[in-house]
Amino acid sequence: MYSGYLRVVEHCADCGLALASNDSADGPAVFLLFIIGGISLPLAFWITAVLDLPGWAFMAIACGLIVGMTLAMLPPAKALVLGLQYRHRPEDFETGDQVG
Ligand SMILES: [Zn+2]
User: Cα of 12 to ligand 1 centre, how many Å?
Assistant: First the structure.
């Protein structure tokens, strides 16, 4: 479905569905903002309470985890949003019959 990290291919290789014309915009990032934010804050409190880390070590761990989770979850989140768009507004997608 992707030709790069987050670049959606023009058309599905199997059915020809126009994928790139349906932009998910900021939808995946907003989902991840709430999901990762909801995970990170309790995790930060837990790390602070359990481990006696210096500030720089805490920041390094927190930034690494947050950036890592974001980069790992963006492609599946974007795929989910595209799937939901197709599920609820299939008329916005060109089918393989209309391609070419
Ligand atoms: Zn397809």
Answer: 5
